[in-house]
Write a structure and sequence with these properties.
Elements lengths: L1 E3 L31 E6 L2 E7 L5 E12 L2 E11 L5 E8 L2 E8 L5 E7 H4 L7 E6 L5 E8 L3 E9 L5 E7 L5 E7 L5 E7 L5 E3 L3
Antiparallel strand pairs: 1-2, 2-3, 3-4, 4-5, 5-6, 6-7, 7-8, 8-9, 9-10, 10-11, 11-12, 12-13, 13-14, 14-15
Length: about 200
Amino acid sequence: MMFLPQPLTACAAALSIALFSASSHAERNASLAGQTVVQSIEGGQHTKEYGRNGQLIYEVIERRKSHAGKATTEAMEREWSEDGTPLRDQTFVGGNEIKGTAWYLNGRVRETRVDQSLREPGGPAGKYVERFSDQGKLQSAGVFQGQFRPIGTHREYDAAGKLKREVTYDGRGSRLSERRYDASGAVIRSERFLPDGSREATGR
């Protein structure tokens, strides 16, 4: 084990998937205030960074694994505020994020991301993203390829968590159809979109 005097800079490394739930709560240790601790573990390295109050604020564990004869890195990265509130939690395989969660400072989940290889292996590639309000209500859900290209069906919800809009996209991120709902869940508008972006109303 060694201690580093300078804060650890952010990197795309983290805890092995096998250890995903190994440390679910951020620890506090006043004797390690302001320090970074690096420890060798089987197949990799475990790094922790502590805030000025001794609160664990950053953790990264990574391991080299072999799958079908091919070496890859499995990792998880976590971050907390100085009062111990979780801020983010990401899991990677081979540098690709396969699972991630971000939180508001009030402790509620802001966003979750799951790679389609885990959620729906036979479905379109990408990440299934859910976004929530700061009061915990689901705001939107759907699959993205890259950061900005939506594909498949995306749903948006009102402040009460009820479905208000549903949009279906093709593999290029172009809209194919859209539906809007009232508070009772009834469809109040339905439209289809043509390749040039023009729309043809199919309902009232």
